[in-house]
Design a protein that fits this description.
12 helices, 2 domains, binds S-adenosylmethionine, 9 strands, alpha/beta, about 290 residues
Length: about 290
């Protein structure tokens, strides 16, 4: 197997194919072998798993996933990488590379087509310029047992944040609605070529098979969450009145009271079941 993390091997290979890194495509490739190996081990990928990788690059994580998974589907946007991947991962017959933009794919349909009889998981060192849309698509697909990704450390902290903390955001609630996050380990910038300006971190999100709360209307729930974070450090009633103009200030205050909260409560302190109580009150008022 080609040692993809050895820059003395890879630099001449990249030069031979006239490959130049694209900053616009988020190309920071791993050159520390412990990182792709640890990601693959921690992801829980095994023979009975079909794994979707996003952005194989020159293939360090792809190799480690192919050594463990029943099947790997790797989606890569940059087809200049084709001759290089032929050399680094061409030997694996459990690998299929899909040359496309992952955001243009129907992820649930792909999983159904490619991973029949396997436990679907997703695993990736994500291109940082589109971390949120990719992660949102993977979670909303609701077809993976677990999603293990490397992202900027501050994004990982945001995903795993607790209510009331500075990192807690609408994106936290979105991710934790679909999955239970666990921060795994940090990855310093010197583990990449070229080096990013930030520290990275690996996080695993185990998707919820059943959601342990009662939400009457998912759209209203997420609108409530967005409205609540739109005006941080202000009273929740201000955010709700602005996000739901039809309620008005009085209606927003009535909703908060009916859901059993103090009139001065702030949105960024609420847990998912508490957001659900507020959202359900809004739904009931609309139906009344
Ligand atoms: N997995 C490799 C590694 O760990 O060294 C490369 C990771 S690099 C951070 C991100 C990869 O995602 C690049 O290969 C890039 O070309 C690819 N990529 C960027 N945007 C993409 C998109 N929209 N769809 C699929 N792949 C994309």
């Amino acid at each position: 197997m080609v040692n993809v993390c050895d820059i003395n091997v890879m630099k001449p290979l990249l030069a031979e194919h006239g490959f130049h890194f694209s900053k616009a495509k988020g190309q920071n490739f791993l050159i520390a072998p412990w990182v792709p190996e640890s990601i693959a081990v921690e992801s829980g990928v095994r023979e009975d798993v079909g794994v979707l990788e996003i952005g194989p690059g020159i293939g360090p994580l792809t190799q480690q996933l192919c050594l463990r998974a029943g099947k790997v589907c790797a989606v890569e946007l940059d087809d200049r990488l084709k001759p290089i991947l032929d050399i680094t991962v061409g030997e694996f017959d459990n690998l299929e590379i899909i040359w496309n933009d992952v955001l243009k794919l129907d992820v649930p349909a792909l999983v159904q087509e490619k991973f029949a009889g396997l436990r679907p998981m997703a695993c990736a060192n994500l291109p940082y310029y589109i971390t949120s849309p990719i992660l949102s698509a993977l979670l909303e697909a609701e077809c993976f047992e677990a999603v293990t990704v490397m992202v900027q450390k501050e994004v990982a902290q945001r995903i795993a944040a607790k209510p009331g903390s500075a990192d807690y955001s609408a994106f936290t609630v979105f991710c934790q609605y679909y999955a239970e996050p666990e921060l795994l380990f940090d990855v310093p910038a010197h583990c990449f070529m070229p080096q990013p300006k930030v520290t990275s971190a690996v996080i695993t999100l185990r998707t919820r098979q059943e959601k342990p709360w009662d939400i009457l209307d998912e759209d209203i729930f997420f609108r409530t969450v967005r409205a609540s974070f739109a005006m941080r450090r202000k009273k929740l009633s201000n955010g709700l009145a602005s996000g739901f103009p039809e309620l008005g200030k009085t209606g927003a205050s009535e909703v908060i009271e009916a859901a059993g909260f103090d009139a001065n409560v702030r949105g960024e302190t609420l847990s998912i079941p508490e957001f659900a109580r507020i959202a359900n009150e809004i739904v009931k008022r609309r139906g009344a």
